[in-house]
Amino acid sequence: MKSLRLTTVGAAIGLAALTAVGPANAAATAPADILQAGAKQGVSDGYPGVVGLVRQGDTTRYVHAGVGDLDSGKAAVSAYCAL
């Protein structure tokens, strides 16, 4: 259950971090690239893990950064995303 809570909190943090990504990451222009930069920034700011998704038309792209389970150190990933 700890992993699920971290993933849920991480996703919310990723969206919040996305709003903080501005001119410093102007090179990242695709929405998924912008969200990935926000996820990485969230981890840099101290969040253990961030998971998010971007849907454009028929395409869905998952982004992740950090860890999803502090005990095992497993990567933060969506349940729908295969690594």
TrEMBL record:
Signal peptide: 1-26
Domain of life: Bacteria
Assigned keywords, A-Z: Signal
Protein name: Uncharacterized protein
